[in-house]
Fold these 2 entries.
Entry 1:
Amino acid sequence: MKSRGRLVANLATARGRRPRRRAREGAVRDSARAASLCSVVRVVAVAALASSPLLVGGVTASAQLRSSAFAGAASPGPPVVLAQAPTTPAAPAAPALAPEQPIGLPRVKDYEPTPELRDVHFDFGAAAIRADDLKILDANAAWLRANPDALVLIEGHCDNRGATSRKNELNMDLGERRAQAAMDHLVARGVHPSRITILSYGEERPQCAEASERCWGRNRRSSFLVKPR
């Protein structure tokens, strides 16, 4: 009886210990589940951190990117050169006038003296037609009217006297005025001005080279030369 009682007691004791081992095994299983759950949480957290913006100095990387992008958009890029609108073209400048060409001396074969047209002479320093020469100019005009196909060249001449450094220039001007005076008289007598050309030689073509009043008087003249039209 004593050994059965101990056996029962031992059985009871053994039966009482089994729940505790099951409890321990459950605790171990719970701990393993918790550890596994923690591992999953860690993996999820790592993945979340990997996909989430990183913190850099308290500012997220995406925020830095956004601010950088904004700053890049705000900062001016390289200057853009705009095509200038075409302006109204200025009116072309008028071509510069060619300097006046000196009057070319007529060739001898173009104009020739004719006995029908006589010279007229002038007083010293004067360009007025003298009364004695009016009849000569009237006769010249009559011949030109009778020969409408003839063109006339009137040459103005001077003597070589003068005391200033501008003597030649003054004589050129005086010879032109003498030729113009003869032309005006011919036009007044009916000769068309388109048939008349005037030219001054000043003192350059004297008829006489003596230093005398008779010679100087011959050089102060207007001469008439003609050519066919």
Entry 2:
Amino acid sequence: MKDSVKAAVEQILDSYLEVNNHRKTPERYAILDAVYSTDGHFTLDELGEKLATEYKFPVSRATLYNTLNLFMELRLVIRHRFQGTTSYEVYGESHSHQICTMCGKVTEVKTPEVTKAIDALRLKRFRKDGFTLYIYGICSTCQAKLTRKMNTKKTTKTDNDNESR
């Protein structure tokens, strides 16, 4: 994590904990560091594994869950629910996700036209901070599997028709 970003997010967490008379636990700061050193999306289990292996700082699932909820409240982390899986990522730049409805693969995509349209959008009594767009479809890998499966069925049907003549 860049030092300036690290200092900024730690300051947000420090201020919140002080104002609300919460303890500044090493677990919260270890989780914050692990989250902000992760590229892209991560699950609760992946974060727990990273803390245990890379940081040598195992943390209970309940602590992870409660800390991520706190980070969401502070707008340091955003939660996504992709095809039955809950993932998290650092709150940041607006972006779009393409999600395969067959395998569940999630890919971030740049959509400058959408970003420009949302930036120009004027909403009444609402301050927009960002957006996340989900685009559902079938990835190229799954599409290739479907095509092979369909071709196999056609070949089998043709072979069966020829045998019955």
